[in-house]
Amino acid sequence: MDPDEALDVIDATLRERGFREVGPGRADYEGAIRVHGAQVDVRLHIPDVRFIELPEVHLKDRSQVSPELLAHVETRTGICYASQTGLPIDMFEPGEAILLILSLASRTLETSYAGGALRDVIDEYQAYWREKGGVRFLAPLSQETEKLQLSKIELESGQPNFVVHTQGSLAHYKPVKLQDVTVRQSSTPLGPTQGVRVPSTLAELEQWYCQQVGLNGSGWPGVLRDLANQALVFFDAPNALIGASLCMPTEILAGVKKGSIRHSKLPQLVEARKATIAIDRYEGTRSDLDSITSRNIGMSSPILELDIALVGGGTIGGYLAKFIVQSGGGAKGRLRIYDDDILKEGNLGRHLLPYGFLGMNKAKALKAELERFHPDLEIEAVPKNALRDWTELRKFNLIVDATGDWNVQNALNAEFLNARGDTLSAMLHCWVFMNGAGAQSFLNLADDFACFRCLRPKLSGGWRYPAGDERDELNTVPATCGEGSYIPFSVDASVTAAALANKALLDWANGQPGPRLRSAITDHTRGRYQKYRSPEPSKHCPACAHQRGEGE
Ligand SMILES: [Zn+2]
């Protein structure tokens, strides 16, 4: 619809509802919406008739609604009737769209009347509390939180970055310490108390603290001592992570510096002046590896504490390593990458690693690249052939084979079948099928299902569940003799193989391994569809048949 036409429709619709155009924009109106029968005057600002930016509904007079109802009213953007992306609006029906928005604004205010207001304030309490800048918590918060400190670290973005971390961590950065941090846990939500919406002085903070159900009121002397010693005190509750520190009077600071005021006297001194000593309020955001990696999984990541060895840091292994890190690998458990090859120009077109790592061992380069993901991440890089390190390898919980190399796949499979340790319980292979026709992942738990070799028991024979047409000549050219026999296929095939493996890994770690062999077509002309399945062992498998008491 033509924008002018849309504006005309909107104009007619709004006039019919008693709204009048007030400017200064082309579509700025004033009128009233009804909230439980009462009129509430609003200003309507429509920045874009395609609704890429949502129309804003502002209260004209805040005194028309009780202050407690202002939870969903922001000064800048008006009534929060919908999150920006959560509300589909039809740009081809602009009149109806505007009516929908007005009714949503009414409903939002009515919900507040319905008793949700205080609850909303509590839900958004952190936003009310915010005053000073934000602080990022790199240390996970728990009852036994260790000694914490607030530091400044340099980010590549150049943004100021204040982080709370445990002393001695952040090896890759040079943290500049600012102050100590202590944390008090509250099992119940924090919110406004009788007389104190958010505290501004030490006296108000004391009053606020002692009325919180979830905070230990008798713990106030400890909080006061920390504050007096210029620590930043944080309160960690289900609804908020908020903190405070004292704006210490300069004469006290000078006294401490000169030595005329002893540290032990500080709590007493500030207590005496608590009505006038102001506080700075901070908000914290969880930025620890656990929080970051668990967010997209919807629970604490099942692979946080697993020891994972990744064999192969090539095109599949590079992306897979990134996916594993983003899923929680290496956060608390070990993540080790094996590769004895170096990064060459020919790799760049389908590798995670950039130009700057040319000539560097792939395992070491991946370690350097991936550790940029988070200040607390540590990855082990082993620049040698994994099969020469089997004694070490079997100490991991899971081996992920991303070499895509038949000989390595087979050797790892045989080692795994013969020498499973107590810790090593799974082997996950993934590969690009036949030069980019498809991608597959296969999980071996050394149980009643097939082993890797069962998928192609005879080398001269075909795959039992091929993800591509094996008669296609392009599918059968070996790609091992350097650049001369380089087979082109695009990066998507490698990423698909890595994606299949990452999901299989998470499913297994979650206790629901699901189908062991997962296939995807990446080239629609050469690929062959295979449904997800858990293949039975092959009677002819040279690797596992004798163990199962079959064949000979
Ligand atoms: Zn087998």
UniProtKB/TrEMBL annotation:
One Pfam family per UniProt: ThiF
Domain of life (superkingdom): Bacteria
THIF-type NAD/FAD binding fold domain segment(s): 303-542
CDD domains listed in its UniProt record: E1_enzyme_family (cd01483)
Residue intervals of the Prokaryotic E2 family B domain: 15-132
SUPFAM superfamilies assigned to the protein according to its UniProt record, in alphabetical order: Activating enzymes of the ubiquitin-like proteins
Region (Disordered): 517-552
Name recorded for this polypeptide: Thiamine biosynthesis protein ThiF
Lineage of the organism: Bacteria, Pseudomonadati, Pseudomonadota, Alphaproteobacteria, Sphingomonadales
